[in-house]
Design brief:
The protein is of the alpha+beta class and 75 residues long. Strand 1 and strand 2 form a beta hairpin.
Length: 75
């Protein structure tokens, strides 16, 4: 006879219930992903080129620089 250790919890499921739980979990996660992807707000996911481009006073070869209060164009 095996001796049960103190402080251990044993949970046993039949394979049938384990497979049902896995399938339900996959369906729920898949449903959430489809719902999140299927929205049309915003119409374009990610960033537009205007959001990625440097501010208008900056020219090619300059980079954004934080001066402690605002962003400026660095050289």
């Amino acid at each position: 006879m095996k001796k049960k250790r103190e402080g251990t919890v044993t949970i046993s499921f039949s394979n049938k219930w384990l497979y049902i739980f896995i399938v339900l979990l996959v369906l729920v996660v898949g449903g959430v992903m489809v719902y999140a992807y299927g929205t049309s707000n915003p119409q374009i996911f990610g960033h537009s080129i205007g959001e990625l481009a440097p501010p208008s006073p900056c020219i090619a070869g300059q980079f954004l620089e934080w001066n402690g209060a605002t962003w400026t164009c660095g050289g």
